[in-house]
Design a protein that fits this description.
Blueprint: E1 2-9, H1 15-29, E2 33-39, H2 43-50, E3 54-58, H3 67-84, E4 88-92, H4 94-106, E5 111-115, H5 126-139, E6 145-148, H6 151-159, E7 168-170, E8 191-196, H7 205-213, E9 220-225, H8 231-240, E10 247-251, H9 256-261, E11 265-268, H10 277-284, E12 289-292, E13 307-310, H11 315-326, H12 329-346, H13 349-364
Parallel strand pairs: 1-2, 1-4, 2-3, 4-5, 5-6, 6-7, 8-9, 8-11, 9-10, 11-12, 12-13
Helix pairs in contact: 1-13, 3-4, 7-11, 10-12
């Protein structure tokens, strides 16, 4: 089978980017021919080529809505499809998903669209929700199948009139397993917290910093792994609160799995989510998770079993969750064991890949 993947941005590596790179590499390893079309010439292109994946940089695929650029990308993608002749187009992210479906419909090619969290989800501005809900309603049935990464997003689409129950299927995100290493013994009295996330919407680093300030006298450190436009604001707040000796900013790192293995608690505080890969990475590493109760997060994190879920903007609840896990090594260990078991039962890459390829077979009959 020849599969053409399409994703909007090459300038950042987020959850959708990692998902697509893993998926394309897995499909290629399974014997399928794969090409990725992505907007621009950023870091995504380098990562794809490092993994032996053919990648075409689209000149006119840009993130903001722009009638002229979007029409030019429609023509650009149409030309690529006619030249490469795929059996299937699999689009990721809103912009690529919209134009990818339009091109696929025009050329009578099956198309799958994966929604990595809808642009009309709770937490997004009202005007943006209305706009994207209308757009997604209009283009939903141009896809042969829509994949949501959480049951939350599937239910949201159905409630919003985007597609129907036969069109939309949930396939939870999955992460590749790592080679087992000898267990890291965490005997330090200081509890090491870590959050791996881009400094940008929808993440709420500021809210987490303010909660941590309430526990300044406790023995903990926090690593904020990632970069992005809101980092300077967060750094200023850390300085204002006098937490420079407890909160650190290592930036975007290539050794995330190693950093997780040396940590005690994973945090992800967000205003909205799909099903974040970083939570699955943390579970894979045997870490308990403190996370916002948004999107598909509760489908991975079981309350008081694999971590603690906190309602959005609940300052006292977040302080309580942090205090509970900072204060109990035994509880962290018990939750971490259950989290790791849950990962291997439900969120491995192999499960995700097989379920996705089954969708490909269903819509192409190949």
């Amino acid at each position: 089978m020849r599969v053409l993947y399409v994703i909007t941005r090459s300038d950042v590596i987020g959850g959708a980017s990692v998902h697509l790179l893993d998926l394309a590499a897995g499909a290629q390893a399974a014997g399928h021919d794969v090409v990725i079309v992505v907007g621009g010439f950023g870091v995504f292109v380098d990562r794809a080529r490092e993994r032996g994946l053919a990648c075409i940089s689209a000149t006119h695929l840009v993130r903001p809505l722009n009638v002229i650029s979007d029409f030019r990308f429609y023509l650009e993608l149409r030309r690529i499809v006619l030249e490469w002749k795929p059996n299937l187009i699999h689009a990721h992210s809103s912009k690529a998903g919209i134009i990818g479906r339009l091109v696929a419909k025009a050329l009578s090619i099956p198309c799958v669209f994966t929604a990595h969290g809808w642009a009309f989800t709770e937490g997004v501005s009202r005007s943006r929700r209305i706009l994207y809900r209308c757009i997604e309603r209009a283009v939903a049935n141009l896809a042969s199948k829509i994949i949501t990464v959480s049951d939350y997003d599937r239910s949201l689409a159905l409630r919003s009139g985007v597609g129907d129950a036969d069109l939309i299927v949930t396939i939870h995100n999955g992460m590749p397993s790592l080679k087992e290493k000898s267990s890291v013994v965490r005997e330090c009295d200081v509890t090491r917290l870590i959050m791996v996330a881009r400094f940008d919407i929808p993440k709420d680093h500021v809210f987490l910093v303010r909660a941590l300030a309430s526990l300044a006298r406790s023995d903990w450190t926090m690593d904020f792994v990632g970069d992005g436009p809101t980092m300077p604001q967060v750094k200023r707040l850390v300085t204002e609160l006098g937490l420079e000796d407890k909160i650190f900013f290592p930036g975007a790192c290539s050794d995330v799995s190693e950093r997780l293995s040396k940590s005690d608690v994973f945090c992800l505080i967000s205003n909205w989510e799909g099903l974040p890969l970083t939570v699955l990475e943390a579970m894979r590493s045997g870490l308990p998770v403190i996370a916002s109760r948004v999107g598909g997060v509760p489908e991975a994190v079981t309350q008081h079993e694999t971590g603690i879920l906190v309602d959005k903007h609940d300052h006292d609840g977040l302080v309580s969750a942090l205090s509970t896990l900072i204060g109990s090594r035994d509880l962290r260990a018990r939750m971490g064991i259950v989290a790791k078991s849950r990962f291997f039962n439900d969120f491995t890459f192999e499960l995700m890949l097989q379920r996705t390829i089954n969708v490909y077979s269903d819509v192409t009959k190949v």
